[in-house]
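Honest question from a wet-lab person: if I give you the sequences of every part of a complex, can you actually get the arrangement of the whole thing, not just the pieces? Trying it with mine:
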Amino acid sequence: MTQQQVKQCIEECLKCMQACNHCYDACLNEEHIGMMKECIRLDRECADICAYAAQAMSRNSPFAKEICRLCADICEACGNECKKHQHEHCQRCAEACFQCAEACQAMAA
Amino acid sequence: MTQQQVKQCIEECLKCMQACNHCYDACLNEEHIGMMKECIRLDRECADICAYAAQAMSRNSPFAKEICRLCADICEACGNECKKHQHEHCQRCAEACFQCAEACQAMAA
Amino acid sequence: MTQQQVKQCIEECLKCMQACNHCYDACLNEEHIGMMKECIRLDRECADICAYAAQAMSRNSPFAKEICRLCADICEACGNECKKHQHEHCQRCAEACFQCAEACQAMAA
Amino acid sequence: MTQQQVKQCIEECLKCMQACNHCYDACLNEEHIGMMKECIRLDRECADICAYAAQAMSRNSPFAKEICRLCADICEACGNECKKHQHEHCQRCAEACFQCAEACQAMAA
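Yes, you can. This is the full assembly:
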C-alpha cells in the first residue's frame, strides 16, 4: 500500500463511520422502529469498527491489515442490511459501507 | 449550532485524531524518545477523545456539548505540549489541536 | 484518591459498561421496542463512556477526573431512563448506572 | 459457547486491558524508555482491542467471534514483547495477555 492508499482508506472509514452513526440516529427516530432493529444494531457495529480501523491506520498499527479485513466484513454486513430499507439515510449508509468495504479489502490484501 | 457547524467540528476532530496518531507513531520512532514521552502520552489521550467526540456528534448524542468541552481541554493540553518540540509532526499536530480546540469550544458554548 | 479507590471506580465502570451493553441488546429484542428507544440510545452512550473512563483510569490519564465527571453525568441520565422500565435488564442496568455515577463523582471530586 | 464461557472471556479481556494500560503508563516512566518503545506501542494496541472485544461480547455482537480471533492475535504479540522485559509490570502484563489470548481463541473456535 502506498501512503496515498492508506490515506484514502482512512477517509472511507471515517465517511462510513459518519454515515452509520447518522443512520443509527435516524433509525431510532423512525416511526416503524421495529423494522429497523437490525439496522440500528449493525450501524453501531460498523461505526465502531470503522472508527477503530481509522485510528489503527493513522497510528501505523502493526495490525492494520487484520483490522481492515475485519472492518471489510462488518461493512459488507451492514451495507447488506441497510440496502433493504428505502429510507434515504439507509441507502446512503449502504453506499458508504460498500465503498469502505472495498477500500478495506484492498488494504487487507 | 447549525448542521454545518457540527459537520465542521466533526471534521476538525477527525483531522486532529489523525495528526495526533501520526505524531504518536513518529514520536515512538524518534531517536531521543525520552524527550517525547509527554507528547506520546498526550497524543494518545487526544486522538482517543477526538475519535470519541466525532462519533458522539455524528450519532447526535445528547451529550455532544459536554464531550466537546472535554475534548477542547485535552486538545489544548496536547497542543501546548506538541508546540514545544521542533519536529514537523509535532508542529503540525499542535496546529490541528488548536484548531480542534477552537471548534470544540464553539460547539460546547 | 487512593489506588484502591481508583481500582474500585474502574470496576464500577466495567460493571456498568457490561450492564448497559446487555440492556441495549435486550432492548433491541423487546417486543415493544418503540418504548425502549431512549433506553437503547442511552445504553450505548453510557457503555461507551464507561469503557473510555475505565481505560483512562487504568492508563493513569492526566484527564481521569474530568472524564469521570462526564461519566457520572451520563450514568445518571442512563440510570434515570432505565429505572422507568420494568424489564429486569433495565432495573439491573439502572442500579449499575447509579453505583457507577457515585464512584465516578467521588473520583472527580 | 455457554454464557459462562462468554462471561469469563469478557473478564479476561478486561483484566488484560487493565494490565496493558498499567504497563503502558509504567513503560512511559521507565528510565530506559528507548528499550520499551515496542512495549508501549503494543500495550496500546492490546488495551484497545481488549476493550473493544469486551464491549462486543457484552452487547452480543454478531461479530464477537471474529473480533475475539483478532484479539487473540494481538494479545499473543503483546505478550511476546512484554515477556522479554524484566520489569514486574511487563511480566504481569505478559501473563494477562497469554491468558486472554487463550480465552479469545476458545471463543473464536
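Two things worth pointing out. Residues 3-108 of chain D form a domain with the Substrate Binding Domain Of Dnak; Chain:A; Domain 2 fold (CATH 1.20.1270.360). Chain D has one domain: 3-108.
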